[in-house]
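Field log, afternoon session.

UNIT: design team B
ACTIVITY: writing a sequence onto a fixed backbone
BACKBONE:
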């Protein structure tokens, strides 16, 4: 072909070749463990991106405890993940139960005990009443078969006995009033005394305001605790006391639909009628629990399980929608007479009022599945005449205390305030994040120590990255050539991000996500150490990307507040304290480094010691840590003052422990530069040059030897005691 013909032929073939898309990979879909099926189901909201969620709130009659924290921190984490990670538009509704048998009984007892105290009874009267109150208490103690409850009652009985005996003895000796100390007995026996007073005079408490003061106070304390735990407030908060008219209307509709009946002023749900309906099924969550009378009676409440109340039902499985109020109980008007709502109907009416005939998610603690949530489902589906009031039921796992069951009724609970006195809100949240939200969580020293160490591990990484980013460079210097180490770390970064995503898609598995984040930090730490050992600067942009990603994930989990781009805010500061003070600390660090250099060159030991004092004593008190590295610039880290002081104290303890471990027979043997011969007990007899030690030298060493012997014996005793 001629040149012209060849060019003409090429032009004729110049069309785009066929293109085919890549095969791609399967994208994981969010799946949630649904208690309605007891399996993980694909999460599909009913209305596009919008998610409606109702969560059972607290019954407010006492301090919020770690069992509450288990549910509300866990649901806060899940809510944040749905909203901030998966980008759903979450509408979250929670209730406050401020009308309940427990509240009524506690309010009456508190009121009656306060009245009793105001009368300032004499020692003889208190003694007589406590002895009277002890009779039914002792009967209860003997008849109780539940081992945990029996143990609790025995502890209470022992406390009363310890206060009772001294008072009885003093009164038999006709001691003076100031010696008797009856208030000690009154305090120790307040539980059984208030129970005794309630049985005698509870029916005389008729003022409704008495029953509102208690829940109002404890609701306020609950909100304070949630704020302290960094739990987001609900979009809508409903109180039972504000929804009584809606509850009455709800009950009327259930009755008119044929699933409820009136009996002696109370209204009950007809479980048999409901279950026999073709479109309905009773106890969807725990069908095997139907007929469990102990659980059903707990659901009805202590004030609602008398023989006359139980005889009002068509079936023992029926439950109260509306309770006729007895003397000593608050009441509201209704078509059936004066009464109050049943426990289960409260949530149904409030949730239905806000979210309508069907919601995407309903959440609560594992122990609420039956009868509470099963009864909620039944009466709501009876009201709406549907079979899908809840699409996904999420239940958080139990919380145990060092392996033991925790219960308010067993009086072995740890309040949220007590827990926050030992650990920060972030550390508690990290502990929850490191466990599955639906499994049992054991709140123990080991659990919290793991969370503290995880926090420290992350924080050290963030501080190291911040130090690397502070190193001065020009704009072009920010972009460094990638070698094999950077490519390997970046590949690990994307692998770990993908693994985190897969974990969160798998029932929002924060435990798996946190482990992948730990691996990413470990790989990053190895990369930093490798670069520094080779006297090479780590890649700033890559480390900044990794640290920013981890920070963002922790913000999504609710473990970081504020707008800091990297790491934990210092001391809970809302302003960027680091950017404010770090320039001044850098000047101080450089000045100190120059002083140290000159002091080493001129061998001025006193100056070097002063520099150490600044590093070890002065700056930690201000929340500043200096880390000296031979041949490299000093690293400056801004850390919580309390953290640094604890580290300092821990170092002292570890140093003392290490010293205690050394047997006195070995303490001098390693000092071969000082001593050459020893007796059978390891005590030195000759110096390094072979000369026998003088009496004066031996006397000084003997004091050190005996002090070490005492220390080592303490260590052996600690080991023997399991410490």
């Amino acid at each position: 072909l001629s040149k012209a013909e060849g060019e003409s032929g090429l032009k004729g073939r110049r069309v785009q070749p066929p293109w085919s898309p890549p095969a791609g990979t399967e994208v994981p879909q969010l799946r949630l463990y649904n208690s309605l099926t007891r399996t993980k189901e694909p999460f599909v909201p009913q209305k596009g991106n919008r998610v409606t969620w109702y969560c059972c709130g607290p019954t407010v009659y006492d301090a919020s405890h770690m069992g509450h924290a288990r549910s509300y921190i866990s649901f806060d984490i899940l809510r944040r993940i749905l909203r901030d990670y998966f980008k759903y538009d979450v509408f979250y509704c929670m209730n406050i139960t401020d009308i309940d048998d427990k509240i009524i009984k506690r309010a009456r007892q508190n009121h009656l005990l306060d009245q009793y105290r105001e009368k300032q009874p004499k020692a003889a009267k208190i003694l007589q009443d406590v002895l009277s109150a002890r009779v039914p208490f002792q009967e209860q103690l003997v008849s109780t078969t539940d081992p945990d409850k029996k143990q609790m009652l025995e502890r209470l009985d022992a406390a009363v006995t310890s206060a009772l005996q001294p008072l009885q003895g003093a009164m038999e000796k006709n001691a003076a009033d100031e010696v008797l100390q009856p208030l000690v007995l009154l305090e120790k026996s307040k539980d059984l005394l208030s129970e005794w007073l309630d049985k005698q005079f509870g029916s005389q408490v008729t003022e409704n305001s008495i029953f509102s003061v208690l829940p109002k106070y404890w609701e306020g304390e609950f909100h304070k605790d949630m704020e302290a735990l960094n739990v987001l407030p609900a979009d809508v908060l409903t109180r039972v006391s504000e929804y009584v008219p809606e509850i009455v209307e709800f009950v009327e509709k259930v009755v008119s639909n044929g699933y409820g009946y009136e009996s002696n002023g109370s209204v009950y749900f007809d479980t048999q009628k409901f279950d026999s309906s073709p479109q309905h099924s009773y106890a969807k969550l725990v069908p095997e629990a139907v007929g469990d009378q102990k659980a059903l009676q707990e659901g009805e409440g202590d004030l609602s399980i008398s023989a006359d109340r139980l005889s009002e039902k068509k079936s023992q499985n029926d439950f109260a929608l509306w309770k006729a109020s007895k003397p000593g109980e608050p009441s509201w008007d209704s078509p059936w007479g004066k009464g109050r709502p049943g426990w289960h109907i409260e949530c149904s009416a409030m949730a239905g009022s806000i979210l309508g005939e069907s919601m995407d998610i309903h959440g609560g603690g594992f122990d609420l599945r039956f009868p509470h949530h099963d009864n909620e489902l039944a009466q709501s589906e009876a009201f709406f005449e549907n079979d899908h009031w809840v699409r996904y039921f999420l239940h958080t796992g139990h919380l145990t205390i060092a392996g033991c069951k925790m219960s308010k009724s067993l009086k072995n609970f740890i309040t949220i305030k007590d827990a926050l006195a030992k650990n920060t809100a972030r550390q508690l949240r990290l502990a929850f994040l490191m466990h599955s939200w639906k499994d049992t969580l054991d709140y123990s020293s080991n659990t919290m120590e793991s969370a503290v160490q995880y926090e420290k591990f992350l924080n050290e990484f963030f501080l190291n990255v911040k130090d690397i980013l502070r190193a001065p460079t020009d704009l072009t210097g920010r972009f460094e050539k990638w070698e094999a180490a950077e490519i390997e770390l970046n590949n690990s970064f994307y692998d770990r991000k993908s693994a985190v995503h897969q974990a969160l898609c798998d029932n929002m598995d924060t435990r798996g996500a946190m482990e992948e984040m730990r691996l990413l930090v470990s790989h990053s730490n190895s990369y930093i150490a490798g670069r520094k050992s080779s006297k090479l600067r780590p890649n700033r942009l890559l480390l900044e990307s990794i640290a920013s990603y981890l920070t963002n994930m922790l913000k999504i989990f609710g473990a970081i507040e504020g707008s800091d781009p990297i790491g934990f805010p210092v001391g809970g500061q809302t302003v960027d304290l680091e950017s404010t003070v770090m320039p001044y600390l850098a000047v101080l660090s450089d000045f100190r480094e120059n002083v140290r250099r000159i002091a080493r060159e001129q061998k001025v030991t006193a100056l070097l010691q002063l520099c150490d004092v600044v590093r070890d004593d002065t700056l930690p008190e201000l929340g500043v840590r200096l880390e000296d590295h031979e041949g490299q610039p000093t690293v400056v880290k801004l850390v919580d003052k309390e953290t640094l002081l604890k580290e300092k104290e821990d170092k002292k303890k570890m140093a003392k422990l290490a010293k205690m471990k050394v047997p006195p027979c070995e303490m001098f043997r390693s000092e071969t530069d000082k001593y050459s011969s020893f007796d059978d007990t390891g005590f030195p007899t000759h110096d390094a040059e072979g000369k026998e030690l003088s009496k004066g030298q031996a006397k000084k060493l003997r004091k050190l030897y005996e002090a070490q012997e005492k220390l080592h014996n303490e260590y052996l005793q600690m080991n023997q005691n399991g410490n």
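LOG NOTE: The chain is about 55% helix and 10% strand.
NEXT ACTIVITY: expression trials, pending approval
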